[in-house]
Structure formats: C-alpha cells, structure tokens
C-alpha cells in the first residue's frame, strides 16, 4: 500500500483534508471517520491519521474528487466547534497509530482455544493498522534522471512507488531505472523463453477453429464495405473517413476526457504514431480471437500482445512493431497461428484507412476494457486516455 501525499487545514467548525491519489478510481473510496481517527482506502493508496482533536460524521461532511489533478478533498465537522487542532503540519506524527502492535505481549493467555467462524472472517478483513511511510515528493532533478515512458515518452517516476501494485500490469521490472534499450533486450529474451514449439505446431496442424476465426468479420470490415458502396454509387465522393457512429456510452466517455494540448517534437510525434499501430494491432487480434465478445481475459490479451503496454517499449519503426506483434502472438495468447498475425495486420490497415473516427472507436473500447480491469486501468492514465484526446486533434 502507498501512503499518499496529504495536507490538512482548519476553520472554526471544519477540518479539511486534501489527499493526492492520482491513480485511484473515483468509485473505490472507503472512508472511516470516528473521533480522532480518519482512514481512507483507495487502491493502491491507504491513509490512516490520528488527529489532535475529534471529528464527527453527522451529514455535514462534504467530499470531492478532482480527477484531472488526482486530488481528493474532504471537509469534516469538528466535534467541538471552535476547537483549535494543534500540530496539523506535523505529518509524520499524524501518521502514527494510537497503539503499536509491537507493544503486545509475545505470549498472551487466551480464555479459550476455539476459534469461531466469525473470528476467522474478522481476521481476513483489511488491516487498518498497517505501517505507513510518509510520502516523499520526487524532485524535478530526480524525475529528469529517470527513464521515460507513457504517451509520447512524457512520463517518469510513476512506478517508483507503484511497482508492487503494478507488477501484474507490466512485465518490465523497475521501469524508472531501465533504459529503452534494456527494456527491448529483456522483452526479446522473455519472448524467446516463452515460445512453445509444441503449442505452435498444435495450432498449425489442428487449425479448424483458427480457420473459423479467420472468417470472422469485425465491425470495421462492415464499415469499410459501407464506405466502398457509397463511393461506388457516387452518393458520397472524396470521403476521407468512414461513416463511424458512436454509441451513447462512447459519447459519455468522450465528454469525460479532459481537453489537453500536446506539445510533441518530431521524434515524439513519430513515436506516438508508431506506438498507436502497436496498440491497435493488439486490439485487432483480440477482437478477432474473441469474435468481438469481450471477456475477462481481454485486458490481459491486449496488454500482453502490445509491447508498448507490457514493456513500455518505444519502437523505432513500423517494421519493429510488426516483428514484435508477430513474436508475441506466437508466444502468449491461446491461439498462436501465423495467419492470425496476417489477419490482425490487415484489420489494423483497414482501421487506419477508415480514419481517426474508427481509430478513436477502437481506443474507446480499449479504455473501457482497461477501466473495468484491476489494475490495468493504470494503462489508461499512462497511454489510452491521452491517445483518445490526441487522435481527435490530428490532421
């Protein structure tokens, strides 16, 4: 668990606590307010404060979450109006629990040895008394020394405190201290070790279901056919984009994104486009392999097939992307067949030709899949959300 950065302020009747939790989900905040105790759990963050005065939960408390800034703010009534809480700037002291677990006797006599089912269940509950380490802000100089990743390689320091929580999301260890060249070599070594000749040969010779998947028509093929039909009948000439419509859910997604401007130099812009192809390739394979039916493995499949998402890879060319995708399709998913690689490449080509509306629709689908998967939703913050905003502004 991560102890988030926080600060406290007070008025005559209220105590305000502001907590920085940029990687928490708004729907997953657990609060406990009782007297001198304040506790918050929002995976991967945990904060327990022992306050110098008593607060009360009486309906007057108000909370808000600024998603853009990652700030959770709660305003809580004081039990005794006008009381001044001393030492609100002594953050380390506030983190200390009321009692230390080490103060308990090493051997304690129990009245009975029987353990009831209720006691067993209570032991499995979240431990609100876990140790906390005060949050230390990483300086700009330290951030600059860390390796870059994320959309346009503009992020660093994210994994410094989140490595334990994100070990199931990415394959590279200590990404903040691993260069792009080191990540690439480790990725290639991992793929070499993972390749299973028996699995590959089985899929190659027993390919009845593979042939079935190859006949599947994703929604973008229908969009392509519709576009070609319109062009043939001269109803809509010189059309650069397909007639791709967005559902109400997708429109709601778009409304929730923050409008940003991206200052990318030529190198970063090229890298963003190349990584986009890698991500769309992984999604195209997933849609075909599941025949458009998203399942519990979809998030794993997409991030595993994309070197960008699983290894924070920065590809140098489209050729590198195609080689990587081919290798990973033959190493990781359930169906490992060369023709599925070719089909995914063709599908990606169609998606890109249909224009940015089609690409955006794919990105929104990836965003939903990751949003509903714990802890893959972090990849939305690192990559997919920015792609959803950026692609709308491309020309």
TrEMBL record:
Coiled coil: none annotated. Residues 1-89 form the CS domain. Its main location: cytoplasm. CDD domains: ACD_sHsps_p23-like (cd00298). The keyword Membrane does not apply. Keywords: Cytoplasm, Nucleus. One of its GO terms (biological process) is box H/ACA snoRNP assembly. The keyword Lyase does not apply. One of its GO terms (cellular component) is cytosol. It is found in: Cytoplasm, Cytosol; Nucleus, Nucleoplasm. Pfam families: SHQ1 (PF04925), SHQ1-like_CS (PF21413). SUPFAM superfamilies: HSP20-like chaperones. One of its GO terms (molecular function) is unfolded protein binding. Belongs to the SHQ1 family. This is Protein SHQ1 homolog.
